[in-house]
Amino acid sequence: MKTGLIMEGGAMRGLFTAGVTDIFLENGIEFDGAVGVSAGAAFGSNFKSRQAGRVIRYSKQYAKDPRFCSIRSLLKTGNLFGAEFCYHTIPDTLDLFDTQAYLDNPMEFYVVCTDMDTGKAVYINSDEAGENSLEFFRASASMPLVSQPVEIGGKRYLDGGIADSVPIKYFESIGYDRLVLILTQPYDFVKKPSTAAKLMKRFLKEYTAVAETLENRHIVYNETLDYIKEKEKNGEIFVIRPEEALPIGRVNHEPDEMQVVYDIGRDVALKNLEKLRAFLQNK
Length: 283
Fold this sequence. Notes:
By secondary structure, the chain is of the alpha/beta class. The protein contains 13 helices and eight strands.
């Protein structure tokens, strides 16, 4: 049996995920492997480095810093979330990311990105990505329209959620057979067609495959949710999700509101802790 953790994205909704994974860390919940998409990758990396509390700490501390997330950053660099500040300044100097702990943890960690040439998802084992590992994390969270594509090894990538928001079928395909999912939308959520589809087509006019993937994203996402609900009903997987829509947008600058969403994640995880232990131990 291989236990796996799947973490959906959702930008600042990812603080819910951070709350859940911090409860996991505080209670000794471990997995053989994990996969994160977008914020699920960026925030989820702290689960592998075993740094409980780090995500909510730096998110609140730099919430109003224009280098962290701002229109100024978007106009100046092409990235709403400042690439240099978020992926270098914070982890390297302001709130240190424990790279050694990350590498020492034997849990595999996969990052999902979208290949701009094919419009398909790519799944990167971060331990095998070497010096490019950080760039794949950045690519996974590079939302279209408000982020520059990330070039790695001559290929260009964007947000992994474009092509595979909840990579359950991928993790099943590589042998993970006891899966825990952290979703950032409630049970009855249904994704609607993007209202920015035409604008995205114009933005991605040189990348017709990824534009088409974006246009059909809601269909694929809702089909994936149906697949998840069926497996959940049969007791084959364990899903942790908010009970109702989280009170936060994809972008947020209010520390108190961030704390609320993080605390919701902790509360939901605590409510499910004993059931989760039973699920993971049921071999």
